[in-house]
């Protein structure tokens, strides 16, 4: 009987619990013993591993966050930490590991691969910056949260003829900002991939008012050179010349919380089940991602070595639509 463990690592993403549920139940359906690792790689090193049954993962797919928990672990970055993690699994007879997470998590999975331990990754991060998946678990829910914020800000902005900055997460990737700006009809989007000066934002706001708009919404990615706070500070510093102030709203970790939507629950379920199929075939050292509308395996060495590019055609489209 095969024994397989699953862990979640890095930033939580809506849909992680659905992936855990799918991994566990798909494994049990094959007659395997399934185990859960608490607190990510930290728990793996400490041996915080326990067997999971069908009912242990019941009623979790609609919940945000991760029931297994996640924690930073600098020790796992060392060779000694990795060996201890493998030792913890060997002591329980665990033959393979499923790692649910983003870039850092899959870098850890690749480290286990380099130590000859069977591992399969599942693509999960709200940033959508992971090579090997067109869209990752959590992105759709996070995007809809940002979109709701834009819609709400537009209501009050129109009532008072004001301009607002909305900062969204995404680290150094502008995907969330760009897609929410397009879907929300923002007047401008500021992303890390394209350097934007404060005066360009000022001009966008003036264009909106000259066009007769009652509001101006600027969506800003947190990793942009001029984030929401810096742009707001610039306008405050030049208020006398500009004649207006910018009010900044930062969504922050609000985007990670809350219940996953239907898309993320289904995506997580399909990728989790696909990871188990991959283990059954004995094909390890890969990331299960969603490419061209199907679960696809990409070697972990490629995943950690390559950077996922942002589709700049969408940025050009956003510029066309913001008039």
From TrEMBL:
Residues engaged in binding substrate: 125-127, 162, 169-171, 222, 247, 253-256
Active site: 127
Subcellular location: Cytoplasm
One of the record's GO molecular function terms: fructose-6-phosphate binding
GO biological process: canonical glycolysis; fructose 1,6-bisphosphate metabolic process; fructose 6-phosphate metabolic process
Enzyme Commission designation: 2.7.1.11
Binding site for ATP: 11, 72-73, 102-105
Family recorded in the similarity comment: Belongs to the phosphofructokinase type A (PFKA) family. ATP-dependent PFK group I subfamily. Prokaryotic clade 'B1' sub-subfamily.
Subunit comment: Homotetramer.
Record-given protein name: ATP-dependent 6-phosphofructokinase
Organism in which the protein naturally occurs: Ornatilinea apprima
Highest classification ranks of the organism: Bacteria, Bacillati, Chloroflexota, Anaerolineae, Anaerolineales
């Amino acid at each position: 009987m095969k024994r397989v463990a699953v862990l979640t690592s890095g930033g939580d993403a809506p849909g992680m619990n659905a992936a855990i549920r799918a991994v566990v139940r798909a494994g049990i359906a094959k007659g395997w013993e399934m185990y859960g690792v608490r607190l990510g790689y930290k728990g793996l090193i400490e041996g915080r591993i326990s067997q999971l049954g069908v009912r242990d993962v019941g009623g979790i797919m609609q919940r945000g966050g991760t029931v297994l928990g996640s924690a930073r672990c600098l020790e796992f970055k060392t060779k000694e930490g990795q060996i201890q993690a493998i030792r913890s699994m060997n002591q329980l007879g665990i033959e393979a590991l499923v790692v649910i997470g983003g870039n850092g998590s899959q870098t850890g999975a690749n480290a286990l691969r380099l130590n000859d331990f069977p591992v399969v990754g599942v693509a999960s991060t709200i940033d959508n910056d992971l090579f090997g998946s067109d869209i990752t678990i959590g992105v759709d829910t996070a995007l809809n949260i940002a979109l709701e914020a834009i819609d709400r800000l537009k209501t009050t902005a129109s009532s008072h003829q004001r301009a607002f900055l909305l900062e969204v997460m995404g680290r150094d990737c502008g995907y969330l900002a760009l897609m929410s700006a397009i879907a929300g009809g923002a007047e401008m989007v500021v992303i890390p991939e394209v350097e934007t000066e404060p005066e360009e934002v000022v001009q966008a706001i003036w264009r909106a008012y000259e066009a007769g708009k009652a509001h101006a919404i600027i969506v800003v990615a947190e990793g942009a050179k001029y984030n929401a706070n810096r742009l707001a500070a610039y306008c405050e510093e030049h208020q006398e010349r500009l004649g207006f102030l910018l009010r900044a709203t930062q969504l922050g970790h609000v985007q990670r919380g809350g219940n996953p939507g239907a898309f993320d629950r289904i995506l997580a379920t399909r990728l989790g089940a696909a990871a188990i199929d991959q283990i059954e075939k004995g094909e390890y050292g890969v990331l299960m991602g969603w490419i061209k509308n199907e679960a696809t395996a990409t070697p972990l060495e490629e995943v950690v070595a390559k950077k996922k590019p942002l589709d700049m055609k969408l940025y050009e489209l956003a510029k066309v639509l913001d008039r």
